[in-house]
Design brief:
Helix content is 0%, strand content 51%. The protein has 59 residues and is mainly β. It has one domain (5-56). The strands form two sheets. The chain has a three-stranded antiparallel sheet with strand order 1-2-3, with no helix packed on it. The protein has a three-stranded antiparallel sheet with strand order 4-5-6, with no helix packed on it. The two termini are 17 Å apart.
Amino acid sequence: MIGRTVYTSSFETVKSIGIDVHTRRRVFSFDSPGYTPMIWGGRNLYLFGYFTVHGFTPR
């Protein structure tokens, strides 16, 4: 959980998603599963996949 968002990932659906805990709405979706759903690096978010690391800058 980062802030109000819970992140989860699935190799079956090949997606990583983030759900806002207050609204229960999906606020993040990315077509790549990750071993670690999401990591906060202080300024950016990181998704560690099977072969790749994806970086995201929050809005």
